[in-house]
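User: Can you model how magnesium ion sits in this protein?
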Amino acid sequence: MENDIKKILISENDIQNRVKKLADEINRDYKDKDLLLVCILKGSIMFMGDLMKYINIYAKVEFMSVSSYGNSTVSTGSVRILKDLDMSIENKEILIVEDIIDTGITLKYVCNYLKGKGANSVEIVTLLDKPSGRKVDIKSKYVGFEVGNEFVIGYGLDFAERYRNLPYIGVLNESMYK
Ligand code: IMP
Ligand code: MG
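Assistant: Here's the modeled complex, given as structure tokens:
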């Protein structure tokens, strides 16, 4: 698997340090609030796992699965909910935990959906932001790192369901896409 990687963009160490900083901000901003972390499967699992370890205030966790890509590396633009929330979110402060915002279409849809279910607030913490890919207007309250217009894998992010288990963010060799 390691032979498929062209370069490491963000090291394991840099990710961990940044995730701790994000958790510090969340601990401060959501103290005394009814915080619900909503992890978007499957890309956000590692980020969620690390982030929640560093969150030291009361927090509940939920998981949602949405699909907008299939096995392609470019967004298809249509969003489907594959797994919905289990608990009521009325009056809760929602923080969506996302791996990467590219076009923004997925999160725009999810945000509107959760607002429609009576949440008090709906905000986003994304590990990665790819501003060059944006097609709809969406604001993330917390961003780990900005990345350029390349397809990244690792730390939860996949290409055709592989590479999620890498502990860093990297770029694949071009030959892997053919
Ligand atoms: P958006 O709707 O275009 O913002 O797509 C967001 C979703 O697409 C993310 O949650 C990822 O699952 C996936 N995605 C977008 N860019 C990448 C990438 O560079 N590598 C892996 N997955 C990506
Ligand atoms: Mg995702």
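A couple of observations from the model: The first strand starts at residue 5 and ends at 10. The CA atoms of residues 69 and 75 lie 5 Å apart.
User: Helpful, thanks.
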